[in-house]
Each structure stands twice: as structure tokens, then as C-alpha cells.
């Protein structure tokens, strides 16, 4: 009786187009070098396994007659002294071979962590006055971004931002093929939505208390409704500074594009293996997180400093369906689109600027 994980034995008495599975014969086909394909519909219809050679009482034959690793099939050529064993791939082996799936899972989890930590700090500031102040919130974002990168970089490269993935797909196609862009982006948006949903569940009671205390409700367009929605969505100007500054649509779009451009420029600079400024790339996530914190400290009073379409639009959708409706989408000034278009535009410009300046300089001097 044979099961998943058992070994298939290829007969060694000559060249065959059949291999044995237990007492049954199973059709085999040509495979890539070092591989064999055997069909067994009821067990595993697309089996592919590594070939392992086991020596037995070897007779004296020319080496070329018993060297069957170079042929592209599971047939054995004139090798009476050897057997070929190949392990049947299990379903677990099959799933583990889907590298893109695991990369998307890493992007999903990493983006979710960013939202939980970053938006969570905003929620704590709005609802309890904890970490009150732009710099205090920026420090939490710094830690959230850095930790999320460390958690996922080995698997997916830790883009954790659709705008960053967009720039990599355009300017780093060898590292990030274009066909991955859609899958990464979907994972990032969904991760952000889950992170926001978890925060909503955790903060829901306090949000309702604040709204009730101020005699208003979600989606009413009131100052308190906008303030509580800002836990998830971003606004221009920042609701905490709305009484002292005005920000136009064009200015908000420019700030979001400019900030994301700087972030993209720094990501490419810090991860470029030709650069010796950061010799140990293990520190790159910390510097990327620090870049986010600095940009938040400067620009958050004006636009809340998004830099990430998934971080804004995912939670914004959650807020919309959680009762904030028009306060979330289309939002005051119909400005929700700025936090999508601005980062994509900025990431493109930032990557282009890096490749036409610093990257060319490194190429000329290294």
C-alpha cells in the first residue's frame, strides 16, 4: 500500500516509459533536468519530485551508460546496477512551493501590523489623549513600520505599500516582476482592511462614548465625527489643526506626492547594495521607519501624512461601512482620492529621480 510521501521506484532493467507505484504501473513523462513526472490521478495527478540515486552492486559498465541524470525523462538507460527513488510530493509540499502565495501572505500581515500599530496610536491619541502630539504619534509609526518590515522582509521584500510595489514593478522589474503587482496590492489593501476592522472592534465602545458625550453621531459631518473617523481615514487639514490652517486640494495632493517621493527615494537608497553608506542592510528598516517618522512630524498637520494608499483606503472603506459614510467617502472637499493618487504619483517620481541621479552616480563610481 502506498500513500502520499511514499517513494516511487523506477525499474532499472532498461529504458521504460512506466514507473511502478506499489504493484501498479504508472505512466511517466519527460520532466525538467533532475526531475521526473508520474501520473496517478487518484493520488496526485501532477506529481513532480526530486530524483535520488541509490548505489547497489555496481557492475563494470562505461560511465556514460549508467549516467541517467542528464536525460529529461524518468526512463533508466542500461543501468542494471542502480535504482531511482523519487518521493511523492505531499499536499503540504505542493502548497509550500507557491512562493507568490507566501509573499502575498507576508504583505497582508505586514500591512495589517502597520495599520494596527500606526492607526492604533492615532486612536489612542484621539480617544484618550495618550501620546498626544504629532511627534509622539510619529514615533509609534516609526516603530510600527520598522517592526513590520523586519517581520516580513525575508519573505516578500516588505513593500507593505501599493505605491512602493508600483514603483518597484516599473523600475526594478528584475527584482519585482510586473505580474506580481496586482497580487501584492490586493494583499496590502486587504491587510489594511483587516487591521482597521480589528481596531474598530477594540475601540468601538470608546468611539461611541466620545460621540455620545458630544451629542453627535457617526457620519453627521460634525467636528467630532470627523475627528473619530480620522483614526481610520486621513483628512486635510488634520482635524486637530483645522481651526488654525487651511489646505487646498492641490496643496494636499502635492504634499502627499512629495512625501511619498522622499520615502521612495530613501527606500531605494537604503536598500541599494552598491551603496556603502549603510553597510549593514539589517539597519535599513530602522532608517525607513525613521524617514516615515520625520515626514509625519513635518507634514501631518497638513494632510495627516498618508504616503500609503492601502493604509488610507483600506481603513477608509471600513469606516465608511461602519457608519461614517460620507465623512469617509467622498470625505470633506471630496478629497479621499488624494491619498490614492498622491502616493502613486510620488513613488513614481521618487524612484525616477533616484535612478537618474544617485543610481547613475553609484554606477559611475563603483
TrEMBL record:
Location of this chain's protein in the cell: Membrane
Sequence intervals crossing the membrane: 100-127, 133-160, 181-203, 249-271, 283-302, 336-354
Keywords annotated in UniProt: Membrane, Transmembrane, Transmembrane helix, Transport
Protein name: Aquaporin
NCBIfam families noted in UniProt: MIP
Major subcellular site: membrane
SUPFAM superfamilies: Aquaporin-like
Gene Ontology MF terms: glycerol channel activity
UniProt GO cellular component terms: plasma membrane
Amino acid at each position: 500500500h502506498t500513500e502520499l510521501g511514499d517513494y516511487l521506484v523506477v525499474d532499472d532493467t532498461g529504458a521504460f516509459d512506466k514507473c511502478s507505484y506499489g504493484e501498479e504501473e504508472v505512466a511517466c513523462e519527460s520532466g525538467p533536468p533532475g526531475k521526473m513526472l508520474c501520473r496517478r490521478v487518484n493520488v496526485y495527478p501532477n506529481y513532480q519530485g526530486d530524483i535520488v540515486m541509490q548505489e547497489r552492486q555496481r557492475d563494470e559498465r562505461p560511465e556514460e551508460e549508467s549516467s541517467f541524470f542528464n536525460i529529461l525523462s524518468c526512463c533508466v538507460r542500461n543501468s542494471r546496477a542502480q535504482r531511482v527513488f523519487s518521493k511523492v510530493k505531499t499536499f503540504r509540499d505542493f502548497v509550500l512551493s507557491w512562493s507568490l502565495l507566501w509573499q502575498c501572505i507576508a504583505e497582508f500581515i505586514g500591512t495589517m501590523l502597520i495599520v494596527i500599530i500606526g492607526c492604533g496610536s492615532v486612536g489612542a491619541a484621539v480617544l484618550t489623549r495618550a501620546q498626544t502630539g504629532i511627534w509622539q504619534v510619529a514615533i509609534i509609526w516609526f516603530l510600527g513600520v520598522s517592526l513590520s518590515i523586519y517581520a516580513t522582509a525575508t519573505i516578500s521584500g516588505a513593500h507593505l505599500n501599493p505605491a512602493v510595489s508600483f514603483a518597484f514593478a516599473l523600475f526594478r522589474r528584475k527584482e519585482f516582476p510586473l505580474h506580481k503587482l496586482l497580487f501584492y496590492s490586493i494583499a496590502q489593501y486587504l491587510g489594511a482592511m483587516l487591521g482597521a476592522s480589528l481596531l474598530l472592534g477594540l475601540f468601538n465602545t470608546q468611539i461611541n462614548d466620545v460621540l455620545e458625550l458630544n451629542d453627535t453621531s457617526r457620519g453627521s459631518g460634525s467636528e467630532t465625527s470627523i475627528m473619530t473617523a480620522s483614526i481610520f481615514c486621513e483628512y486635510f487639514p488634520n482635524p486637530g489643526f483645522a481651526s488654525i490652517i487651511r489646505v487646498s486640494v492641490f496643496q494636499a495632493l502635492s504634499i502627499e506626492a512629495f512625501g511619498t517621493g522622499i520615502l521612495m527615494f530613501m527606500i531605494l537608497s537604503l536598500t541599494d547594495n552598491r551603496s556603502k553608506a549603510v553597510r549593514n542592510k539589517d539597519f535599513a528598516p530602522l532608517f525607513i521607519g525613521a524617514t516615515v517618522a520625520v515626514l509625519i512630524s513635518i507634514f501631518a498637520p497638513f494632510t495627516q501624512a498618508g504616503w500609503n494608499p492601502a493604509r488610507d483606503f483600506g481603513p477608509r472603506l471600513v469606516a465608511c461601512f461602519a457608519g461614517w459614510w460620507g465623512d469617509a467617502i467622498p470625505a470633506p472637499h471630496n478629497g479621499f482620492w488624494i491619498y490614492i493618487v498622491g502616493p502613486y504619483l510620488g513613488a513614481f517620481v521618487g524612484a525616477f529621480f533616484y535612478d537618474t541621479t544617485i543610481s547613475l552616480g553609484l554606477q559611475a563610481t563603483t
